[in-house]
Specification:
With about 250 residues, the chain is of the alpha/beta class. The protein folds into two domains: about 180 residues, Rossmann fold (3-Layer(aba) Sandwich), CATH 3.40.50.150; about 55 residues, rRNA adenine dimethylase, C-terminal domain (Helicase, Ruva Protein, domain 3), CATH 1.10.8.100. Helices cover about 30% and strands about 20% of the residues. The strands form two sheets. The chain has a seven-stranded mixed beta sheet with strand order 4-3-2-5-6-9-7, sandwiched between helices. It has a two-stranded antiparallel ribbon with strand order 1-8. The protein binds S-adenosyl-L-homocysteine.
Length: about 250
């Protein structure tokens, strides 16, 4: 039996074992609780099982894949369901997530879910559409730098590991993929109100072509602060995390 690829579930199965093993080995330690999202036919799972993690489980949505996993990996701990609806509080505290290519249209939602659980998810290794992977790791001054770069880099160290060609999948997707690792860095703290910080980052990047003076005009900064702060003549993509933090401390 093989699982028939369903487009709506983003089923592009990796067909290169060497790459699968490299992804599985990118989780940083053996001594970890690991959850794999979307194992499909277990291409990554077979290598993850060899790593002897303290705890290992997978979550899969597709009935046919669930049946496949049950037959081929009878001892594997499998959650049946949608990762986006999965309550991570029920899972181990301090765990790592790994994902092969899941549907690229939900990649931002997955990353935002990780952020919402930033104190429990201590690492993520994942394969994303190459542009999303680059965005997560982008630095100021780069046109890929955006909301996800800033919000994730506030709490996580991000690394772009390698690119995977569309020809390594069956069926091939339309885009290249990038594998990243993000690691929670508990030394990273922002010294301002988190909600204000988020609001400023989101608003600034929603109008990324405008200077901050225009992009942030709906937010409550005092006119003196705006006039005395040169950051307001820059655009969002030119600002560091510390610059956004400074703005958040001065938002009324
Ligand atoms: N990792 C495997 C399979 C990739 S295909 C490989 O690299 O070969 C993506 C898998 O994610 C599919 O099996 C699909 O059913 C599953 N999936 C899609 N959306 C999901 C969701 N929201 N929660 C859990 N699994 C999901």
């Amino acid at each position: 039996m093989i699982v028939k690829a369903k487009k709506r579930l983003g089923q592009h199965f990796l067909n290169n074992e060497y790459i699968a093993e490299n992804i599985a080995c990118a989780i940083s330690t053996e001594n970890a609780h690991v959850l794999e999202i979307g194992p499909g036919m277990g291409m990554l799972t077979q290598f993850l099982l060899k790593r002897n993690f303290s705890q290992f489980a997978v979550i899969e949505l597709d009935e046919e894949s669930l049946e496949y996993l049950d037959k081929n990996f009878p001892t594997l701990k499998v959650y049946s369901g949608d990762f986006l609806k999965f309550n991570l509080d029920d899972f181990y505290n301090g765990f790592k997530v790994i994902t092969g290519n899941f549907p690229y249209n939900i990649s931002s939602q997955i990353l935002f879910k990780i952020l919402d659980n930033k104190d429990t998810v201590i690492e993520l290794v994942g394969m994303f559409q190459k542009e999303v992977a680059e965005r997560v790791c982008a630095q100021p001054g780069n046109k890929q730098y955006g909301i996800l770069s800033v919000l994730l880099q506030v709490y996580y160290d991000t690394e772009y590991l390698f690119t995977v060609s569309e020809h390594e999948f069956n069926p091939p997707p339309q885009v290249k993929s990038g594998v990243i690792r993000i690691t929670r860095n508990f030394d990273k703290k922002i010294n301002c109100d988190e909600q204000k910080f988020k609001l400023i980052v989101k608003t600034a990047f929603n109008y990324r072509r405008k200077t901050l003076r225009n992009a942030l005009h709906s937010l409550n900064f005092s006119p003196e602060f705006i006039n005395n702060t040169s950051l307001f003549s820059k655009r969002a993509e030119q600002l560091s995390i510390q610059d956004f933090e400074y703005l958040a401390r001065n938002l009324c």
